[in-house]
Amino acid sequence: MVIQEGMSIQRKLEILSMAARYDVACTSSGVDRKGNNTGIGNSLACGICHTFSADGRCISLLKILFTNECIFDCKYCINRSSNDIVRASFTPREVCELTMEFYRRNYIEGLFLSSGIKISPNHTMEQIYETLRMLRDEYNFNGYIHCKIIPGTDPVLVEAIGWYADRLSCNLELPTAESLKKLAPHKNRKNILKPMRQIQLRRDRHNEYLGIDDAARNRLLTDSRINIDETDGPVAANIIVPFGRTLPAKKRFAPAGQSTQLIIGATEESDYQIMTVSEALYKNFGLKRVFYSAFVNVNQDESLPSTLDGPPLLREHRLYQADWLLRFYGFKTDELLDNNKPNFNLLLDPKCDWALRHLELFPVEVNKADYQTLLRVPGIGVNSARRIIAARKHAVLDFNDLKKMGIVLKRAIYFITCNGRMMYPIKIDEDFITRQLLASNERMPFGIDKDITYRQLSLFDDVNFQPDMHDQIKILSQA
Question: Of 52-61, 245-254, 319-328, 376-385, which gets the smallest average pLDDT?
Fold first, then answer.
């Protein structure tokens, strides 16, 4: 370990922003909060951390660790205690100054604050609490804040931080207790799930008294007793207003909810096991998002798998697609995978793969199918399914109409009919449709143009590309 004395804030920023790069935070904020005349900033329910919002904007987040010093020795972590790396720590004032200066320059729209564990979880989270308190109360920062909760933190600190942050997250890290014991022996499932349960119950409790008068609200906050541990029997905790403060009338506890992260590929769990864990977290803990982080072997530890072929990014992508199906499309994990088929098909997205294994349910008549049935058709998303439901009240839809609505016909045409007819004669056979979907990067079948008409094949047919004169000369010269 290398600790430099008198380190500049610029140097700290370089070290602690780089140290935070493996903590996934690309998500929508999930909270709308307008600016006011007493502070600076606001929060919009759109993307953060170098991602794209629904209206096409690319907006960003200051993503840092409070410290990369750590008493834990998790084998997969670059900041583990046994690594000989340069260590640095911010002070609460430094984080506040950085956030405010970056915000004023329009570099960021919020703060993502995570941390290693310096001295103890409570010591570190006390420093983070003071940082958030200063940002909100002294600097009047009204922008978005996402804060990581360290497993093992005292419930009173978790409660206090929840009134200042927009989103909280406590990383599960690995899917099973056995994997956690193997690669992160200082952590255990109980200490991770305990704050997750507390956050869920506090948010549920808060919904009960929204809208009542201030006196009753603060009385409920002070008197409420929350069972935050259901694994070893009831353990009641008196959760009080943060350190005796009186809350403003419109104060909300973690309004953007909570999330967690799973490392993919560090241990041998199947996709089925991972998705089963995610489904349970959504159902039992009310999580907004489960993030999947492809394992990167930064420590070259012998207990870690080799990543000579790079991190399993395609597997991570398939898990995100399946996660979307669970949250918005009405699928269950057991429909997508089982013990006989424990991993996703890397060649096809989970929805197409499911449809190919259930061809007895297709084709679907788009002019008659209900909303949930339409959602299960490859190429039809949530918005396009709603458009279909709305449009067919006034007209009988055909394939031209579907194309205008944004349906991805290069996938959907194998699974739908319009007025009882398919777009063109198709053999309803798993092997045939699979080959068509995989051929030429899922391009539209030959003969189907933007106007759904047949025409003669041209040199640049498949990419709708018209070369300029320079490209034509180059192509002919190489022929």
Answer: 52-61
- Nearest Cα to Cα of residue 193 among 220, 159, 153: 153
| CB of 121 closer than 8 Å to CB of 152 | yes
Rg (CA), the chain: 26
Q: Which residue has the tokens 């140290």?
A: 19
Cis bond upstream, residue 363 (ω within 30)? yes
Residue pLDDT, tens place only, 97-121: 999 998 998 888 889 999 999 999 9
The pLDDT value given to residue 127: 97
Asked which of 125-134, 343-352, 421-430 is least confident by mean pLDDT, the reply is: 421-430
**How far apart are the C-alpha atoms of 38 and 262, rounded to whole Å?**
39
Instruction: Give the SS3 label for residue 444.
Output: coil
With tokens 């804030």, the residue in question is 9
Residue with tokens 């008294």: 209
| DSSP 8-state symbol, 43 | B
Mean pLDDT taken over the chain: 80
Alpha carbon distance 125, 164 (integer Å): 13
Determine the Cα–Cα distance for residues 318 and 5; give it in Å rounded to an integer: 45
**What's the token pair of residue 312?**
């399993």
**Parallel/antiparallel/unpaired status of strands 62-65 and 58-59:** unpaired
Q: Does the structure show a pLDDT above 70 at 297?
A: yes
Q: Which residue has the tokens 């199947």?
A: 270
132 vs 128: CA distance, rounded Å: 6
More confident residue, 241 or 145: 145
451 φ/ψ sector (left φ>0, alpha ψ -120 to 50, else beta): alpha
Dist. CA 283–CA 98, nearest whole Å: 38
pLDDT digits (tens, 9 = 90+) for 415-427: 999 999 999 888 8
DSSP 398-417: -HHHHHHTT--HHHHTTTEE
| Nearest Cα residue to 321 out of 295, 350, 341, 342 | 350
Closest C-alpha to 72, from 18, 117, 14: 117
Q: Residue 447 has which token pair?
A: 């003969």
The pTM score is 0.79
> What gap in Å lies between CA 282 and CA 304, rounded to an integer?
29
Q: Are 292 and 264 in contact (CB under 8 A)?
A: yes
Q: Which residues contact 16 (CB under 8 A, 6 or more apart)?
A: 64, 65, 66, 67, 68, 88, 90
> What's the CA dihedral at 215, 217, 222, 223 to 10 degrees?
100
